[in-house]
Design brief:
By secondary structure, the chain is mainly alpha-helical. It contains five helices and no strands. It has a domain of 76 residues.
């Protein structure tokens, strides 16, 4: 079921990208090529149709994403962290004692000159 929803998600993504690129913008984008379709979509051209189609596709995309998340979490009941064995994977921490070494000067070192 999740694999089917994943294919639908990819198809919705491609459809949203195409619908957004076909809309008229300040830089025209790919909307410049859809000028001949004005009579097919009505007097205002494809602007109203494409905005409604983009909204519908975005709504379907969000619903599909939520459904996939719900089904995935319902299917996966355990975590990868549950399989970790705490006694064998964590190394023992050894306490290291550090000795403080202070140099001492003896009389023999001073008189050797």
């Amino acid at each position: 079921m999740i694999s089917t929803l994943l294919v639908v998600q990819i198809a919705l993504t491609i459809a949203i990208v195409i619908a957004i690129l076909l809309q008229k913008s300040s830089s025209m984008g790919l909307g410049a090529y859809s000028g001949s379709n004005e009579s097919m979509f009505g007097a205002k051209g494809p602007a109203g149709f494409l905005s409604k189609a983009t909204f519908t596709l975005a709504l379907l995309f969000i619903l599909n994403t939520l459904t996939m998340g719900y089904l995935y979490n319902k299917e996966k009941t355990h975590s990868v962290a549950d399989t970790i064995d705490a006694s064998s994977s964590v190394p023992a921490i050894k306490k290291v004692e550090t000795a403080t070494a202070t140099p001492t000067i003896t009389k023999e070192d001073n008189t050797s000159k």
